[in-house]
């Protein structure tokens, strides 16, 4: 009798069905670049553009990144490299400007952004700083961090808005809408609302019908559901200090009283009452 061969595929030894990616991650201690998932998983960029952006972000400053230079390093030709650069420009990952040197030579200046639009949005929201008053003689300048704090809140607001599409694809926002709505989300964060709570508010009980204008829908929720500021913390009552200790003039015992005198036992009966 021939041995029967099972027709069902064998399961993986780990107990999970075969298929899908598995990661074997080792830590990098040098020679690495940090890339956000907004780039690595960008739904509108081609793989060529994503790979080119990662390569450019990994290069040291002042490294040439012209079309001919890049095409000479990779199998993609100049046409595909040029198209990928245009994609990155359109989505804010690159900015290329022409500059004329003093010698008359025209060069291309390339700026790579690892988080498109964050610097521009921060600059647009940052109010003009008043001229600081000159320090008084003998005083030491003290460093404050309001700009760093407001920048961190803005970064968190941009991340919240950009990540909404992961909860529901209908909440996909254009980059300009993310920047436009960031101040409204910052207002929630400034009032002590955690990022996770803001996300839940914006994605909870979404309508079943198509969301034709996600920016307007989110703007309405941010405006209509804005919570009030946290109440100021109540100041604890000032503790009442007890009277100081005095030495009784009659028996030398210690007792508490606003001023010197006799303790309760040594006072006349009428005075003690």
Describe this structure in words.
- With 273 residues, this protein is mainly alpha-helical.
- Among the domains are: 37-115, Arc Repressor Mutant, subunit A; 148-205 and 212-224, no CATH class.
- It has helices at residues 37-40, 47-58, 67-73, 78-90, 118-125, 146-162, 175-190, 195-203, 214-224, 269-272, and strands at residues 94-100, 106-112, 245-247, 254-256.
- The strands form 2 sheets. Strands 1-2 form a two-stranded antiparallel sheet. The protein has a two-stranded antiparallel ribbon with strand order 3-4.
- Strand 1 (94-100) and strand 2 form a beta hairpin.
- Helix 6 crosses helix 7 (175-190).
- The longest helix is centred in the middle third of the chain and has 17 residues, at 146-162.
Number of strands: 4
From the alpha carbons, calculate the radius of gyration and give it in angstroms: 34 Å
Number of helices: 10
The level 1 CATH classification of one domain is Mainly Alpha
What is the averaged pLDDT score?
Answer: 80
Largest sheet: 2 strands, antiparallel
Name its key features.
273 residues; mainly alpha; Arc Repressor Mutant, subunit A; two-stranded antiparallel sheet; two-stranded antiparallel ribbon
List the helices and strands and how they pair.
Layout: H1 37-40, H2 47-58, H3 67-73, H4 78-90, E1 94-100, E2 106-112, H5 118-125, H6 146-162, H7 175-190, H8 195-203, H9 214-224, E3 245-247, E4 254-256, H10 269-272
Antiparallel strand pairs: 1-2, 3-4
Helix pairs in contact: 2-4, 3-4, 6-7, 7-9
In short:
This protein has 273 residues and is mostly helical.
């Amino acid at each position: 009798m021939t041995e029967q061969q099972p027709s069902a595929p064998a399961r993986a030894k780990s107990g999970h069905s075969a298929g899908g990616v598995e990661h074997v991650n080792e830590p990098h201690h040098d020679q690495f670049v940090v890339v956000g998932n907004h780039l690595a998983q960008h739904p509108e960029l081609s793989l060529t553009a994503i790979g080119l952006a990662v390569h450019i972000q990994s290069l040291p400053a002042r490294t040439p990144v012209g079309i001919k230079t890049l095409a000479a390093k990779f199998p993609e030709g100049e046409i595909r490299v040029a198209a990928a650069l245009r994609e990155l420009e359109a989505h804010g990952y690159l900015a290329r400007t022409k500059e004329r040197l003093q010698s008359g030579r025209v060069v291309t200046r390339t700026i790579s952004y690892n988080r498109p639009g964050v610097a521009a949005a921060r600059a647009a929201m940052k109010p003009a700083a008043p001229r600081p008053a000159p320090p008084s003689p003998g005083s030491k300048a003290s460093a404050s961090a309001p700009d760093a704090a407001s920048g961190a809140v803005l970064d968190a607001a941009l991340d919240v808005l950009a990540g909404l599409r992961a909860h529901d694809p209908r909440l996909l926002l254009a980059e300009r809408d993310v920047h436009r709505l960031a101040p409204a989300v910052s207002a929630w964060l400034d009032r002590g609302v955690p990022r996770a709570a803001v996300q839940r508010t914006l994605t909870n009980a979404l309508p079943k019908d198509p969301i034709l204008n996600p920016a307007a829908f989110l703007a309405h929720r941010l405006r209509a559901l804005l919570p009030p500021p946290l109440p100021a913390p109540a100041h604890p009552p000032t503790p009442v200090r007890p009277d100081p200790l005095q030495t009784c003039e009659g028996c030398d015992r210690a007792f508490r009283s606003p001023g010197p005198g006799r303790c309760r036992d040594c006072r006349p009966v009428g005075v003690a009452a």
